[in-house]
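Wait, can you check?
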Amino acid sequence: MTLQDVGQEVRTGLFINGQPSPGTDQMTVQNPADPNSPAGVAAAASREEALSAVAAAKAAFPTWAALTPQERAGKLDSALQVLEGFKDEDAVILSRENGKILMEAAIDLIVFNARFGLASGLADEVEVSKVLPGPPADTTVSYKPLGVVTIIVPFNWPLAILAASLPYALVMGNTVVVKPPPSAPLATTRVVQRVAEQLPAGVLNVVTGRDNEIGEALVSSPDVAKVCFTGSPGGGKRIMSMAAGTLTRVTLELGGNDPALILDDADLSEAALDGLFHGVFDSTGQICMAAKRIYVHRSRYQEVVDALSTRLEHTVLGRGTDEGTTMGPLHSPAQKKFVADLVDEARNAGAEIREFAQLPTDESLAEGNFLRPSIVLDPDPNLGIVTEEQFGPTIPIIPFDEDDDAIAAANDTWAGLCASVWTKDRDKAAAVGNRLMAGYVFVNNHGAHALDERAPFGGFKGSGMGREMGPEGLREFMDTHSLALPVEG
């Protein structure tokens, strides 16, 4: 198969207990740029097939958990070697089903591999047990894997997001059922299946399907010990509700309304402004940790507006796989409408809207989910463009006069995933950053490209609970066990 041939003929199935299966039913995967040319066909599992994946993971758990963290890490490192020969093909498939540009799809695959390496590298740091000498007892505190973990990932960066939890769960001795996004399951299924084929049967399973048919089975089964979910706050609430019946623990990463605070002494070099631009508009703005609001000291306001405008003037909308495209479509018609409605609301309220780029002229793209990128200048802070997570190619830019006012505005939100502070003063950056109610604060940068992958990641408030990656990410997949022995003599 050549890269030019990758497309509608792509078909993926289920992978359960070491065996591929076509699934009970199939579902067509749309191409966001050209809905009339599907990206492929994926299996649509039944509830029974989803539960069989859970059962397979449960059966494989004792043997996998009995290995040392180092042994499990070694098996994962070996399993990943098989992916190299498929990376170009997988990137094309991911771009077509997701909509994002080919370069970003390739990066998604690179991050998947890198995060596995980071998790494996922590194996030696895992504290298996410690002893508390008596009296009153000689107590051994040990850390044990949880059991079966369900991981549910979104469409936007499915492989990178999956690898924020999957290798950490596996290194700690858990077995896993992965549920790729129903609207973009193809590349993720292919990658996970290749890795699973190199591991003992049942350790890693992948089940695709419609949320209303298999979601409850993968979340509320009494044999599932933990669910990791990345998605919308509404989706997180549904996951928590389903998990409540069995008291299944959850890690939720639910997006954000990330503020960027540009102070009066900010370094606005070309490199810094490039970082800000990418922190807003990469993946057509469809990144949970993208900047969603920019607060700029009034003395630097026009400078930032002009710099972003200049960069947006060079935007080329089109198919993510086409050479020269710098921004693809939104993933769904519903999201396109949501973002367009936010911009229209701001326009009707009197805010100045600057739109950039031209919609594609290719007739085959006429029904694609394309939206011109925009900036919204000094909107009323009560408008949806400020209070909502746009998850699209637009952002409000709001001037401020006092740092305290900007900090208060930044924290006045339902969310608390990421934030950023832009200043030349390191001490000021720390002081302001520590006042921001967000799980991760960037300094003089913003977005996934600036993330320290060694650090734990997760949000405050409505942005979720729990942490991924880093040593804390390992601990999320362990439970504490205490054994108190009588003191001898």
Summary: The chain has a mean pLDDT of 96. The chain has 16 helices and 21 strands. The radius of gyration is 23 Å. Residues 258-453 form a domain with the Aldehyde Dehydrogenase; Chain A, domain 2 fold (CATH 3.40.309.10).
